[in-house]
Write a structure and sequence with these properties.
It contains 20 helices and five strands. The chain is mainly α and 511 residues long. The chain folds into three domains: 124 residues, Rossmann fold, CATH 3.40.50.620; 181 residues, Serine Threonine Protein Phosphatase 5, Tetratricopeptide repeat (Alpha Horseshoe), CATH 1.25.40.80; 170 residues, DNA Cyclobutane Dipyrimidine Photolyase, subunit A, domain 3 (Orthogonal Bundle). Helix 8 crosses helix 11, helix 11 packs across helix 15 and helix 13 crosses helix 17. The structure holds flavin-adenine dinucleotide and iron/sulfur cluster (SF4). The site of iron/sulfur cluster has 14 residues, from helix 12, helix 16 and helix 17.
């Protein structure tokens, strides 16, 4: 009996379910296919990271004596699609079965299900046990809830895994959530700890050359390229974060500083999502740092909440509501994505800086994604599909299961309030408080109307008034509409005219 075991680019874990009970006669297949590399214009660093990590993973399996079938992108026989490659492998190897772990994308799951009818061998689709909540568990939790708030899901997860829990069943420190302490603005001349630049192997150099040849026309710079590409390197990244960054992670989690893309963030999402790190081990490492007195509780709880709470919850939402979720657009946002998302000049410093970080690193941190590029897209009513495609393409950690609920739900409120209980809409005042961007901007965050007024300000009010029917009754927004109501009619008119002029400028590429 021999099995063909297919490993996808985000399944690079030795402990993945599709490699359990691996037999000596089995073949493990990995393939670089154009259909996946090109269905959105992925950032060249993202493609290079995944191909190089796949090739290193394959080399590690081969060194263990496993039969590996690795199909490179430029292999002349490469059919360019998963289905084509699976069919070719089945025809050539004549395995008794095809074994895969469920993918991270609904589209690919449907494709795998179709193989059950198209191939001449049985197809086994296994559960992805690397995640900490199963689909059934999420569905059972969601079943009796009117609102699916992450905070309550997170508490269940803390209890289930006993993380940051005391012997009496109470949360360590007495509170479940220390977010109040995690909103400090940046300090003057704040810089982040140095980051690791991993050495390039021959495999990596070959991949970089391939990506340069084939994908240079995609948005984003390929080099310098410093990503971790093996589990051993990803563990070095994790150690570095726990030792040098975690202690300040909480305090400055929401801060933004010009020229500092990383601050105290972990940079591990790409490694977690590709399988080089596992979520439980990461949470346990952070908890151990707290127990050893090496990091404060607000930082450790805040960090663990992102992984045990947000990451699992977001995945739960995706699978619970797909495929209908992907078609939602409750605010009817349809405006074309401005060219400045793809690097065209803009005078808004905050946007230009966030896009620069994205272009250079295939990374920007959560608050830049949510409160700068996401917030602008929300306020300006940018097309939800175009915005989602942008986020999916430009970040090296982006896969639909995690990108979609974050973009459509959290940033754009396009899911009608499943993920967010109120829109994450903010004016320039928030950005001014949490960053040093506005000092370097042509626009003035204190001005709402006039030539130099920060575009976020009028757009903020205009957004709320445009969607008044949806938000006036929202119990989490009691002061916003009462403030608007207190503005004189002339002021209200001037703000709305300013917003209309700003939207016109976006269309004309003049912002
Ligand atoms: C519009 C938008 C799109 C996003 N798209 C993605 C995406 O495609 N892939 C992705 O992994 N994250 C996405 N996020 C969540 C978050 O921004 C990134 O996980 C984070 O910025 C990655 O950087 P880091 O590893 O330094 O994270 P840290 O700030 O150090 O956080 C630690 C870890 O927590 C997890 N995490 C934190 N927040 C979230 C979240 N909201 N959802 C899921 N996991 C979370 C990540 O695994 C992250 O590595 C998105 C957020 C927004 C607002
Ligand atoms: S003034 Fe407005 S546009 Fe300029 S950086 Fe600040 S928030 Fe951004």
């Amino acid at each position: 009996m021999s099995a063909l075991r297919l490993i996808l680019a985000d399944q690079l874990s030795a402990s993945i379910s599709s490699l359990e009970s691996l037999g000596a006669e089995d073949t493990v297949m990995l393939c670089e296919v154009m259909e996946e590399a090109g269905y959105v214009p992925h950032h060249p660093k993202k493609i290079a990271f995944l191909f190089a990590a796949m090739r290193h993973f394959a080399a590690e399996l081969t060194a263990r004596g496993v039969h590996v079938r690795y199909i490179k992108l430029d292999d002349p026989a490469n059919t360019g699609s998963f289905s084509g490659e699976v069919q070719r492998a089945v025809a050539e190897l004549r395995p008794n079965s095809l074994i895969v772990t469920e993918p991270g994308e609904y589209r690919v799951l449907e494709m795998m299900k179709s193989w059950q009818y198209e191939l001449s061998v049985p197809v086994e689709i296994l559960t992805d046990t690397r995640f900490l909540a199963t689909h059934d568990q999420f569905a059972a939790w969601a079943a009796d809830k009117k609102q699916l708030r992450m905070e309550f899901f997170y508490r269940e997860m803390r209890r289930q895994y006993g993380i940051l829990m005391d012997a009496d069943g109470k949360p360590t420190g007495g509170e479940w959530n220390y977010d109040k302490e995690n909103r400090k603005p940046p300090k003057a001349s704040m810089t982040s700890p140095p980051r690791i630049a991993h050495k390039k192997s021959a495999i990596t150099r070959e991949v970089l050359s391939l990506v340069k040849d084939r994908f240079s026309h995609h948005f984003g710079t390929l080099e310098p390229f410093h990503y971790a590409l093996t589990r051993a390197e990803a563990l070095i990244e994790l150690d570095h974060f726990i030792t040098h960054c975690l202690p300040c992670f909480g305090d400055f989690q929401d801060a933004m500083v010009a020229g500092e893309p990383y601050l105290y963030h972990s940079l591990i999402s790409s490694y977690l999502n590709a399988g080089l790190l596992l979520p439980l081990e990461v949470c346990l490492r952070a908890e151990a740092a707290y127990r050893a007195g090496n990091a404060p509780l607000n930082a450790v709880e805040g960090f663990i909440r992102q992984i045990l709470g947000w990451r699992e919850y977001i995945r739960g939402v995706y699978w619970h509501f797909m495929p209908e979720y992907g078609e939602r657009n409750v605010l009817n946002a349809t405006r074309a994505l401005p060219d400045f998302y793809w690097g065209a000049p803009t005078q808004m410093f905050c946007i230009a800086e966030s896009v620069r970080h994205t272009r250079d690193h295939a990374y920007s941190h959560h608050i830049q994604r949510l409160m700068i590029t996401g917030n602008f897209a929300l306020l300006a009513g940018l097309d939800v599909k175009a915005v989602q495609e942008w986020y999916l393409a430009v970040y090296s950690d982006a896969y639909e299961w995690v990108e979609m609920p974050n973009t459509l739900g959290m940033a754009l409120f396009g899911d009608g309030g499943v993920v967010a209980s109120k829109p994450y809409a903010a004016s320039g005042k928030y950005i001014h408080r949490m960053s040093n961007y506005c000092k370097q901007c042509k626009y003035d965050p204190d001005e709402v109307t006039g030539e130099n007024a920060c575009p976020f300000n009028a757009l903020y009010w205009d957004f709320l008034v445009r969607h008044e029917d949806k938000f006036r009754g929202n119990q989490r927004m009691p002061y916003v509409f009462s403030t608007w109501d207190k503005f004189a009619p002339e002021k209200q008119q001037a703000i709305r005219a300013q917003a209309a002029a700003t939207l016109q400028k976006i269309a004309e590429g003049r912002l």
